[in-house]
Amino acid sequence: MSRAVAVIGGGYGGTAVAKALEAQADVILIDPRDAFVNAAASLRALTRPHWASNMFFPFATLLPQGQVIRDRAASVDPHGVTLASGQRIAADYVVLATGSGYAYPAKPASDSLGDALDDLRRTHKELLQADRVLILGAGPVGLELAGEIKEVWPGKHVTIADPAPELLAGFQPEVVDGLRAQLTTLGIEVLLGTGLATPLSTEPGQSGTFTVTTTTGDDITADIWFRAYGTTTNSAYLADGALTPLTPQGQVPVTESLNVKGHDHVYAVGDITDVPEAKMAGYAMRHAEVVVQNITTQLNGERPTATYSPSPFPTILLPLGSTGGVGQLPSPDGPFAAPTEMVAEYKGTDLFTGRFVARFGPTA
Ligand SMILES: Cc1cc2nc3c(=O)[nH]c(=O)nc-3n(C[C@H](O)[C@H](O)[C@H](O)COP(=O)(O)OP(=O)(O)OC[C@H]3O[C@@H](n4cnc5c(N)ncnc54)[C@H](O)[C@@H]3O)c2cc1C
User: Fold this and answer.
1) 4-32+71-102+231-299 is classed in which CATH architecture?
2) Whose CA is nearest to atom 35 of ligand 1?
């Protein structure tokens, strides 16, 4: 029986599926990058260039029994994948795992490890020259960026502006209050209910003094700014409809067994799915476990039974530098506010680097 599994996208979800199935199937992982990107580490990679290579794990070491093709999917149908190069990969099972894009530096702009490291070093030099930093977006990425900057340069003035009226909407008041207190201690200024009313005169990540007027009528003068809002679902290669119609948000509709609706040999994991939950690496890896179970069962000639249910409440680990931050985690009694030491231990200290060394071997 043919056992070809094409995994499209080597992020948190796709690499977990590929690694778990390579011993029992003919796994082909497709990604235009040459390395797995641990995006959770990207903001420290910006502030500490000597540490930056720790966020990249070359694909070369991932699949001793499988194959990695460095290319981009251009179209997918129930029987396989057509690559941007024109190559056709026939497959018995297809797993869509192409994730989402964030504005640089939250995720690299380049697909090449060397170019991505050069970009981080270049932006680091720009940041080094700036005394006043403006971050647009007070979500987890903007907050983490502010924390990383303050840990390296406590004297820089950091302002975060966001049109949203509250911080971490939907999280427990204890978590939000703890976050506010730590931001105040670090001297990070947070302007909520505040958008920009005038255009920015510099490009993001480039040093150069500018002044903008906010929607509340105030002026902000800063020396560099970063965009920390907005994500895009990486699903353009499905827009031809050869596999499935996408949701209006560009996401892939999935069943509770994480099959792409209408296809019992095609699955999707991670940020690309329409599972109603925050888009997080932790969830992508849980999706991967379900899909691995289901494909394994099918490879054994049986009916798959594993299903996925989203968490009924939001969870987060939000470090502010390597020793600070807040979190909300699950417990049998519901969500609880994680102490700062736990946030540091689980994420802040190494930003998950150790966990991926276990999956890939050494960093770049
Ligand atoms: C700064 C930051 C911190 C974060 N911290 C956390 C955290 O603490 N905990 C948490 O759970 N989540 C965190 N996240 C969110 C997390 O990064 C995403 O949820 C996660 O990346 C989604 O994983 P994924 O497997 O769906 O896809 P991704 O990790 O986005 O990987 C997708 C892969 O698909 C490839 N690809 C794209 N298009 C194609 C194509 N056409 N053909 C082939 N391959 C393609 C890409 O090159 C990429 O390698 C953080 C994100 C950022 C930016």
Assistant:
1) 3-Layer(bba) Sandwich (3.50)
2) 9
